[in-house]
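To assess whether ligand presence alters the predicted conformation, the chain was also submitted together with coenzyme A. Input:
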Amino acid sequence: MTIREINFDNPALLSPTRSMPTSVAIIGAGTIGPDIGYYLKSALPDLELVLIDINEQALENALGRIENYVEKGLARKKLSPAIAHKVKSNIVTSTDYQALAHCDWVLEAATENLDLKKKIFSDVEALVRSDALITSNTSSLPADRLFSHLEHPERTTVTHFFAPAFKNPAVEVVEWAKSDDDLVDYIRWFFYQTGKVPMVTDDAVCFMLDRIFDNWCNEAALLLDVAKPSEIDSVTTEFVHAGPFFVLNMANGNPIIVETNTLQMEEEGEHYRPADIFNTISERWETIPPGAGVEVDADKSRIIRDRMLGILFSQTVDILDRNIGDAADLDLGCVLALGFKKGPIELMKEMGEAEVQRIMAEFAVWKSGMPQPQNAIASYWDYNRYILVSEVDGVLVITLRRPDAMNALHDDMTDEILQVIQANETREDIKGFVITGYGTAAFCAGADIGRFPTMLGDKEQSIEYSRSCSRLLVHLDQMTKPVVAALNGLALGGGLELATRCHALIGVSSAWMQLPEITLGIVPGIGAMVIPYRRWPDAADTFHGMLLQANKLTASQAVEIGMLHSVVEDPANLISEAAALVKTLKADGSHISGAPVRISELPEGVTMSSSGQVLSQEIIGIVSKAVIDAAAATSLNDALETGYAAFGDSACTAAAKEGISAFGERRQPDFQTTG
Ligand code: COA
C-alpha cells in the first residue's frame, strides 16, 4: 500500500496487532520529552512513564513541568481530581537505562545528532524485549539512518511530534523499508485512540512538515538582505498566525534550521544551503508579536510575499510529486502543526493557476534548483480535503476530518461528501454509506461558526447559505441507497441535522446530541426545526426542549425516543456495526414524512437555557413560530424553506451578532442587552 492509500483510511478501522502499552519510556527530558510524557499520561492515566536523561536537574524540571500541566488541567476542569492524581503518579525518573528495560515502548527525544541517537538505540536494544517498540522523535533524520544498524529494526520508526506536544494533535509517523508492515498501522491506531492526528510520511530527510517549516524559516532568513525580521513577520501573517522570526524566538532564536537544511543540501542540492546568518546569530530576533504589524513599503512587501509563497509552493509540490506525504495531511498538518491559517494547497487553489505559475516562475529565477511542479497546477488540489473515504465490506465509509474544529461542517466539506456519494451511489458493489467523525470526541460540532460573521445582517445571503448547505441533506432524503450516521462522539447543531437526515443513526454510549444554536442567538436552519418532528413526532416535547433550551440528549435517551437505532457498547465496533446496519435498510424516501404533522404545544415563558444562560426572547419567538409553521407545511420542501427563512431572520438580529461574537471571543453572550 502506498502512503496515499493508507492515509485515505480512517484509523478507527484498523485492528491493532498489539494492545495498549502499559509502560512507556521517554529518553530526553528537555522540552518535548516531558510534553510527550504528559500527553501519554493524560490519555492513559494508568500508564507507567519512565523518564530518562543524563541530567538529574532536567529530570526534576520535567516532573515540575508535568505537575504544572496537571494543576492547569485541574483549574480549567479538563482533569478530574482522581484522574489528575493518576496522571501525576507512576512516573519514574532515572539516569540509568536499566529503568526502561521492561518497557513496551521506548521513545527517544534527545538532541538531534545522528551518532548520539544511534548509540542510544544500540544501548536500548541491548536492554529491551525484542518486540518492544523503539521510536525516535527526530524532525529530520531518516529512520533508515537511525535504525538500520539494529538487530530488530522491524519494530522501529520515527514518530515526530510538534510543540506543544501534549496539545498539538499532529504527529508524523514514518513508513520505512525495514519496519514491520503492521507497525505503522499499530502506531496510527494508537495515536488516533489517544487523541492525536497521525500523518504517515515517507522516509525522506525532514519528512513532510519540517520541509515546509525549515525552508519557510530559511527563506525568511535569506530575505534579511531586503527587509527586517519585523517586516517579514508582518507580511507573512497574511498566511500564518505568527511570523517565522517570532516562531524562531519561541524556540530560543535559532533552532535546528542549520542541521536540517544542511541535511537537505547534502542530499538534494546547494539550493537548500542554510542561510549564513543562522551560523552567526544565536540571540533572539528583534521582531513584533503576532497581530502587532509594522508598515512595510509596497515593493518590499511584494518581494517578501512572493518569495515566501515561492518556497512554500515549491516544497508543497515537491512533497506531493515525490509522494513524501499526502495532500490532505499536508494541508491539515500545516494548519495543526505549523500555525498556517490555511493549508498551502488551499492557498494555491484560492490564488488560481496563473498566479501560482507566476510566483513559481519568479521563484525559479531567484533560486534555480528548487523543485518546480511536475504536474498541471490544478491537479494538486484535486483531492478530498475534509473527508476520508474507506470501503468496508461493500459499504463506503465517509469520515468527517476537521480535527481543528471538532469536524464542524462548512459548504466545502458538505460538497465533498455529496460528490463522493454521487460518484458511488450507482455502483452495484456499494450497498450504502456510513458517515462518521474523525477522533474519539466529536461526530460533528455543527456548522462552522467561523463562517457566520460574513453573512450576519444579510437575510437573503443567510437564507441562501442555509439552502446551499442543505444540498447534501436534500440529496440524502431522496437517495435509493441507505446511509447510516455512526456517532462516535458529540453531534451538535448542523452535525445533528446531518445525522437525522441519514436513514438510521447509531452511536457509542458516550455520544450525545444538542442543538446549541439558541445559546448563540441563531436558529438551526437546515432541518432541526423540521425533521425530528416528522420522523419521531411522539418525542416532540424532547425536541422543543432541545431547540428552546439547548437540552442535551444522551445516546440512551435517543434510543428511548427512537432516534438512535442502538448504542454500540465497544467503540471499536461502531463502524462495522454501522456498515452491517446499512445492509438491513431500504432507502425509498419514506423515512421522512412529507405530510403535516401534529405536535405538542411549545412551552411558554422560557427564559434560560438548561445550563442557566439567559436567552434571547426574539430568537425564542423565531424558533417557536418556525416549528409550528414547519409542522403545518404540506410538503417537506415547504417545511425546510420555513427553516431556511427562520435562519435568515435570526441572522439579522442583534442577538445573533452578540452570540457569534461571544463564541469567537470565548465569553458568555449578553442577550439581556440585545433582547
Ligand atoms: N465551528 C467552528 N469551530 C468550532 C466549532 C464550530 N461549530 N465547534 C468547535 N470549534 C472549534 C473551537 O473554536 C476550538 O477551536 P480553537 O482551538 O481554534 O479555539 C476547537 O474547535 C475545539 O473546541 P473547544 O471549544 O476548545 O473544545 P471543548 O471540548 O472545550 O468544547 C464544544 C467542545 C463542541 C462543546 C464547543 O466547542 C462548542 O460549544 N462548540 C460550538 C457548538 C455549536 O454551537 N454548534 C452549533 C453551531 S451553529
